[in-house]
Structures are given as C-alpha cells and as structure tokens.
Amino acid sequence: MAAVVGTDEALQAWAQAGEATGARSAALDLENLERTAQWLIQNATDPLLRVVARSCLVRLRAYQVLSTLEGRTP
Amino acid sequence: MTDDDTGAPAPSAWLEQLSLELRSSAGVPSGDRLHDRDRLAAIVALGADDEQHVQPLVADLLEHAALALGAEVSLLSVVLTDAHLVAGEHGLGGWLVQARAIPVEWSLCATVVRTGQPWMVPDLAVDARTRDNPLRDLDNLHAYAGAPLVTDSGQVLGALCVLYDAPRSFSDSEVDVLRGLADQAMARLQAASAAV
Fold first, then answer.
1. Which residues, at least 6 apart from A55, have a Cβ–Cβ distance to it below 8 Å?
2. What is the DSSP letter of B33?
C-alpha cells in the first residue's frame, strides 16, 4: 500500500482503520487484516487506497481457500 | 505498554510497529508496473475489479476464446497489486471457483502486465520462469497463452488468457485471435464505463 500511495498516507489510513475496527494487535493477524481492509474499502476517500485494500482482501480470499487444500498457501 | 484488560499491545505500540513496517517497505523503490498509480486508477474507473460487473460483459468472448483456441479454461484476469483477480471466467474449476484469485507471485498474467506483450508458454515444465509455479500441481496447468488488456490510454490492466492441462504450441494466428478478443473485452469495459 505504501508503494502505491506513499508511506505517510498509508500509515494514516491504516491508523484510522485500526482505531475504527479495534484491530490493535501488534501482530496483524488475518482477522485484523480482513477487518482493516474492509474498513478501508468502505471508508477511504482515495480510490487508490480502496483498490489496494481490495487487492489485499482478494489475496486473503485466495489464501483462505488454499489453506483448505493440504496446507498449500502462498 | 499494554491495554489494561487484555494485555494486548497499546494502540501506540501497534502504530509504531506498523509505521516501521510501512517505512521499511516504502524504502525499497518499487518501479513495478503493477503498482503504477495510473494503471490502478484505470482499474477503478472501469470497475474492472468487480467480478459481478465484468463477468456478464465478457462471458461470450471468453467462451469464444476457449472454443477458438481449444482450451479447457479461459479467463479475464485483472492484476491488482497483490493478487490476480479472476474478473471473468469460462470453464473454471477446482479451488479457483471459490477463490477467483491467485497470489500475484504465481500469476502468469502479471508477466503480461509487466511486459505489455502477449505471452505464450507451450510447456510450463520447460520454461524456467514457470517450472516451479505451484499452479502446475494445483491446477494441472501445463500450457498458457495470454494477451494484454490495454486501455485507450495505454494502461495494461490484466490479460485475457487460455489455460491447458497438456503442453501445446501456439500459432501466430491463434495469438492474433487472442489479442483481438482482449481488445474486444477492453472495448466493452470502456463502453460500459462511458455509458454510466
């Protein structure tokens, strides 16, 4: 995300999403990641932030399906 | 520095770590075409990352691609920053039906986006760039051909591709057919966007 929109904007967006969703764990687990990305898709004003968050969610969907296939994950 | 009740790191600690991670990742110049802001903006503007929007627009083109090139599966792939989204499909099976996405590092269509050129892989087991790709085992993928989806402004959003469970070669005329169908798919996406 930082590579697309810049570090400061990425940090600010994730901070807002983290506070809004309560995803405050230092280790950003899958559940927190999903919640944060969902929040960004619904609330980010920058369309680039939304598409990067969407990319993250789509990858997570692939990861979750692959996890059911004999532990094959990217 | 923990929350009173849960023992979890306080928000400030979480943000501090996230800040370090983001700054660290941003310190490496990407230069990757997948991260190009104009390309991503075009994906958003055309609604190309919405499977529900794209699938009905291109279903017949994908069926045509599969028939014309004798393929089991054809896809309209939109390559995002971290994942290859199956925005349209014909004949898809297995885990991809549910996932409709591939990690970007496994995506052959990502190579098409990066080069902007059609890419034919007659045998994934032979090509050094695809030999170790997990999709060979997961999906019994043996051959691939993809043509770029290029907007009028020159942005490459993804690829229209065909997949095979056995090695095969591709003729120039087949590549032309694939390229023509990719152009038709892009024309439809752009027309749908302009009509809104």
1. B49, B80, B81, B82, B83, B85
2. G
Element (H, E) at B120: strand B119-121
How does pLDDT run across B78-131, given as a tens digit for each residue? Answer: 999 989 999 999 999 999 999 999 999 999 999 999 999 999 999 999 999 999
Strand segments, DSSP code E, in A1-74 are none
Cβ–Cβ contact B25 with A under 8 A:
yes
DSSP letter at B14 equals: H
Please state the pTM of the whole predicted model: 0.83
User: What is the maximum alpha-carbon separation in chain B?
Assistant: 68
Kindly report, residue by residue over A15-36, the tens digit of the pLDDT.
677 767 766 555 567 777 788 8
HEC letters along B180-192: HHHHHHHHHHHHH
Is A11 an interface residue toward B (CB < 8 Å)?
Answer: yes
Which of B79, B84, B67 lies closest to B181, judged by CA? B67
Please report residues of B whose CB lies closer than 8 A to that of A4. 35, 37, 40, 81
Distance from CA of A58 to the nearest CA of B (A): 6
What Å distances lie between residue B195 and A60, B188, B192, CA to CA? 32, 10, 5
Residue in B124, B173, B188, B180 with CA at minimum distance from that of residue B147 = B180
Within an 8 Å CB–CB cutoff, is residue A30 touching chain B? no
The answer to whether B126 touches B101, Cβ cutoff 8 Å, is no
